[in-house]
């Protein structure tokens, strides 16, 4: 059964190469667009993660806005987006995906939300592009959740300051629960370092990871020549609390790109169009030269 509490785990404490939760920290600011989410309702506070996709909008797990699991943003709810080095930004508006019906209620699909910041991020901020992923893709997972060791589980709490990252490989995809035929959910397994180098095995101690509580809403990324591409939002784990053999996953970005564009206008039209115009012009000139 999927659990809400989904970090970035280190590998085996006594495996080689050496790995520790502190060794997973993003000390160079490689992922400046992934922040911590601090949310509260009248009853409790909760830490999650979120990804800035523009100066005004962040993407996160739908369940970070829905502590009562009815699929709708909670009426008594407040949240802040903590971006170390940049500041703390209040959340003015939350839009959960219209097909989201609550965490694992009954499915883990569509667990995605857009949040509009009350004040914009600095103009020099870096944002990932949005894109797709497939089975077999190597993904980089980033978040502010709990950490620990795959050999026995969690040893640290989620924070608003400690951004960790690691990698895994997408094993399986789940299709849309509404029947569109599109893949919506990705899954990967947290492999023991003894399987490093074997087919479907670990990426290596110090690399292979799984998310943990507090990583929900964080990024699943693929590195491209143009920078990081956001392909998923981390939302769930299945298993025994961050141990080898557990499964982690989240929702893919691709099936939700139309919704994101409709709500936010992201990506801004223009960049792609300009490139296309330039490409056509180049073709046209080339043709002319050939005549
Ligand atoms: Ca709710
Ligand atoms: Ca769906
Ligand atoms: Ca794996």
Relative strand content: 25-35%
**Count of the domains:** 1
Give the class-level CATH name: Mainly Beta
User: What would you report as the Rg, rounded to the nearest angstrom?
Assistant: 19 Å
User: In angstroms, what separates the terminal alpha carbons?
Assistant: 66 Å
> Sheet bearing the most strands, described?
9 strands, mixed
The proportion of residues forming helix, as a percent range, comes to: under 10%
Bound molecules: calcium ion
CATH architecture: Beta Barrel
The geometry reads as globular
What is the typical, i.e. mean, pLDDT?
90
Order of helices and strands: EEEEEEEEEEEEEEEEEHH
Task: Describe the 3D structure.
The chain is mainly β and 291 residues long. It is built from two helices and 17 strands. The strands form three sheets. Strands 1, 8, 9, 12, 13, 14, 15, 16 and 17 form a nine-stranded mixed β-sheet that branches. The longest helix has 20 residues, at 271-290. It is globular. It starts with a strand and ends with a helix. Mean pLDDT is 90; it is low at 1-7 and 283-291. The structure holds calcium ion (3 copies). One calcium ion is lined by residues 99, 109-110, 176-178, 184.
